[in-house]
Automatic annotation (TrEMBL):
Pfam families: YtkA. InterPro entries: Ig-like_fold, YtkA-like_dom. The keyword Transmembrane applies. Keywords: Membrane, Signal, Transmembrane, Transmembrane helix. It comes from Clostridium pasteurianum BC1. The chain crosses the membrane at residues 149-168. Gene3D superfamilies: Immunoglobulins (2.60.40.10). NCBIfam families: GG_III-CTERM. Coiled coil: none annotated. Residues 1-25 form the signal peptide. This is YtkA-like domain-containing protein. Residues 34-125 form the YtkA-like domain.
Length: 178
């Protein structure tokens, strides 16, 4: 009886953890479109919510005919407007240009941007296409990253499982000693 109960509890806990992982997983992301002199520029965020810390961003470039622009030089700067900084540490919010590298698809360029504070940010994208420098700005809202509920939930699940196994083992020892 004890082994069957433990097996059922373990399977139930694993099932719960798998479902919670699916529920807490980020969605496919968000795309913001701009048009600059006939060139379509898409900013693709890796999730629906941009959070403080490192975030993977993707820039996609398309010409007037909708064809991907390859071999573009893409630099991105994340800047927090001064009217949004309040009492924040200005040194942490200073922009630094990030060279985006060619992605997996044609016309796609990816890089990681670190947002030091929550609030409104401007993603300034400078790119060279057909020997012409162009620029597109995207306004995004960055949220506080908060705790990682998936890790916390997994840890709590393991602790509960250990407690259940300990209680069952203790009860089994009591019944076999009697």
């Amino acid at each position: 009886m004890g082994k069957k109960l433990i097996k059922n509890l373990v399977l139930g806990l694993l099932f719960t953890l798998i479902l919670s992982t699916t529920a807490l997983a980020d969605s496919g992301g968000t795309k913001i479109e701009k048009n600059v002199d006939g060139i379509k520029v898409d900013l693709v965020l890796s999730s629906d919510t941009v959070k403080t810390g490192d975030n993977e961003l993707t820039i996609r470039l398309y010409d007037e005919k909708g064809q991907p622009l390859e071999n573009a030089n893409v630099k991105v700067t994340a800047d927090m407007p001064s009217n949004n900084m309040g009492n924040m540490n200005m040194d942490n919010s200073k922009p630094g240009a990030i060279d985006f590298k060619a992605g997996q698809e044609k016309g796609e360029y990816t890089g990681n941007v670190n947002f030091s504070d929550k609030g409104n940010w401007t993603i300034k994208t400078d790119f060279t296409a057909a020997n012409q420098e162009k620029m597109a700005d995207f306004d995004i809202k960055v949220a506080d990253s908060g705790p990682n509920w998936l890790i916390i939930g997994g840890f709590l699940g393991v602790v509960v499982l250990i407690i259940i196994i300990a209680v069952i083992s203790k009860n089994k020892k009591k019944t076999s000693a009697a």
